[in-house]
Every structure is written in C-alpha cells, then in structure tokens.
Write a structure and sequence with these properties.
single chain, 153 residues, alpha/beta, Rossmann fold, four-stranded parallel β-sheet, two-stranded antiparallel sheet, 5 helices, 6 strands, 22% strand
C-alpha cells in the first residue's frame, strides 16, 4: 500500500483568492486568515492574487475566468452566506456551492470552497476568527495540501 498526501509547503506556489464583498465584516476576516495561513506556509505575498466580487453567487463565474487564465496553482473561494427571513439564502448558498463544485471537478488545478453558510452573523464571525477558528486559514492549508497532492497523482 502506498499512501499519498500533500505537504503543507507553499513555497513557489501561485495562489488565487476569490472573495466576496457581501458580508465583508466576515469575508475580510476570512481573507486575513487565508493570507496568514499562506504566508506562514511559505507562499510569497507577491504570488497571491486577490479577486473581489460582489457576493457568493458571483464566485463561480470569477473562479472560472481565473482558472481559464492558467496563472495559478490553486484557487481559493471565500464568502459568507447568512440565513435571513427569505429563501434567498437557499438559492445563493446552493448555487455558489454547486458552481464551485462543478469547477473543482473540471479544473486542472484544485479549487477550494471556503464559503461559510450559517444561520446567524454570530455563527459566521465565530468561524472567521472567533471561537471556532478561522475557516479562511483552514482553506489556505487545504489549498496548499491539495496542490501538493495533485503533484503526486
């Protein structure tokens, strides 16, 4: 049996981060966590491109264009969809997840889904640097690991 895992060494990797501006009190924290996680693992700040889009619904279309540019080793998608009083949450969260999921299967590079879907702002803040850690930081680790795993396959 041969076990293949991706190392957490980001040296020399070109990273794209797509982040939605909607719910910026949360997404700004996710972005900060991701940047911290990347730099701590050896990614140069000069090798990180950040693409800001209006909301989580737009993330897949931006990700598609970024992937098609073939300039990056991995794409990290960050956003926050917080449940409200209308079914809008269900549509946006579902379409965002479906779009990124489809891209991740078709792309030649890893695509990491770091979009929070929570019932409240408090839950989102907890996952963006609060008591539940920072899912942006986690997405950065996942991205580096996946790039290095892809190299083994």
């Amino acid at each position: 049996m041969v076990n293949h895992e991706g190392a957490l060494d980001g040296k020399g990797l070109k990273i794209a981060i797509i982040v939605s501006r909607f719910n910026s009190v949360v997404t700004d924290r996710l972005l900060s966590g991701a940047l911290d996680g990347l730099v701590r693992r050896g990614v140069s700040e000069n090798d990180i491109d950040i693409y800001k889009c209006p909301g989580a619904f737009e993330i897949p279309s931006v990700a598609k264009r970024v992937i098609d540019s073939k300039k990056h080793d991995v794409v990290i998608c960050l956003g926050a969809v917080i449940r409200g009083e209308t079914p809008h949450f269900d549509y946006v969260a579902g379409e965002s997840a479906k779009g990124v999921g489809q891209l991740s299967l078709a792309a030649q590079v890893p695509v990491v889904y770091g979009v929070l879907t929570t019932d409240s702002l408090e839950q989102a803040v907890d996952r963006a640097g609060g008591k539940s850690g920072n899912k942006g930081f986690d997405a950065a680790a996942d991205a580096i690991e996946m790039v290095n795993l892809f190299k083994h396959i």
